């Protein structure tokens, strides 16, 4: 994670992430500097990982205004809208960066080492991606509920169970027991990225089908949801070699949330 454009007197090999920090009540890094370290050519291109990082923070009730501070400034004679990023904000952006970029991969390794130094149990990009997909599922289910109601669904529990049975070939209670999860727990919180994505696709595709077919019949809507789930089940099997119910259980997202909140405090208090 090196860059020499703002420090021409030094070689790129002599500069590190820490060399680009600033102090003004807090320790921060300019997004316009951090984007170069992450291999992004422009702030516009860097907007995507910044926005994803901010969305992840909002999903776990971490205040974005404390970590992503928008500021107007002059860089190379140009007026730009920039961000003052805390160390935690930089971590979250790195976890949401394009992993095909070697600079992003290096940044993720760097922050993993920082987390280890202060005993943070962070699992990196995978868990952040899970959080974001879980949030999309929450929003998707709200939208699907509205569309299902407009399609004549009265018993939403039956409608949802049909989708689960299509995807998992069993009901939600048996599925939860099979995966060794307590009945009081939310199954989504233990799903890996692939399984969460399969459920998100089930939700989105079912809603689209209900709208396209202009359905206003509960039984027909239930059949559609079951068929969509069954089709996605085949896709998961073909691409992973496993049925959805056999995909591995992962760390509870509630524990991920707690650790990220702890990281917000400890990373931002960490010295060089």
Helices, strands, pairings?
Elements: E1 22-23, E2 27-30, H1 31-37, H2 43-59, H3 64-67, E3 68-75, E4 78-85, H4 87-95, H5 102-117, H6 125-150, H7 156-168, H8 172-178, H9 193-212, H10 218-240, H11 253-269
Helix pairs in contact: 2-4, 2-6, 6-9, 7-10, 9-10
Structure description:
With 272 residues, this protein is of the alpha+beta class. It folds into two domains: 12-122, no CATH class; 125-250, no CATH class. 58% of the residues lie in helices and 8% in strands. A four-stranded antiparallel beta sheet has the order 1-2-4-3. Strand 1 (22-23) and strand 2 form a beta hairpin. The radius of gyration is 22 Å and the shape is elongated. It starts with 21 loop residues before the first strand and ends with a helix.
β-strand amount: 5-15%
Instruction: Return Rg in Å.
Output: 22 Å
Mean residue pLDDT: 92
Taking the sheet with the most strands, its summary is: 4 strands, antiparallel
Keywords:
single chain, 272 residues, alpha+beta, four-stranded antiparallel sheet, elongated, disordered N terminus, Bro-N domain-containing protein, BRO_N_domain
């Amino acid at each position: 994670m090196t860059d020499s454009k703002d420090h021409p007197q030094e070689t790129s090999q002599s500069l590190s992430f820490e060399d680009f920090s600033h102090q003004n009540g807090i320790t921060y890094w300019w997004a316009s500097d951090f984007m170069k370290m992450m291999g992004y050519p422009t702030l516009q291109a860097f907007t995507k990982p910044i926005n994803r990082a901010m969305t992840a923070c909002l999903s776990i009730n971490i205040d974005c205004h404390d970590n992503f501070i928008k500021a107007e400034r002059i860089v190379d004679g140009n007026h730009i809208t920039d961000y003052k990023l805390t160390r935690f904000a930089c971590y979250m952006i790195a976890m949401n960066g394009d992993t095909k970029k070697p600079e992003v991969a290096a940044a993720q390794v760097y922050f993993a080492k920082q987390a280890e130094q202060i005993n943070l149990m962070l699992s990196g990009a995978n868990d952040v991606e899970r959080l974001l997909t879980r949030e999309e599922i929450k929003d998707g289910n709200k939208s699907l509920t509205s569309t299902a109601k407009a399609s004549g669904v009265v018993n939403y529990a039956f409608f949802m169970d049909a989708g689960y049975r299509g995807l998992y070939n069993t009901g939600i209670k048996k599925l939860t027991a099979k995966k060794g999860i307590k009945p009081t727990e939310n199954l989504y919180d233990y799903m890996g990225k692939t399984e969460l994505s399969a459920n998100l696709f089930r939700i989105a595709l079912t809603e689209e089908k209900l709208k396209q077919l202009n359905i206003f019949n509960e039984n027909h809507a239930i059949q559609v949801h079951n068929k969509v789930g069954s089709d996605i089940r085949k896709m998961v099997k073909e691409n992973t070699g496993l049925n959805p119910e056999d995909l591995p259980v992962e760390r509870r997202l509630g524990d991920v949330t707690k650790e990220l909140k702890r990281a917000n405090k400890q990373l931002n208090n960490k010295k060089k």
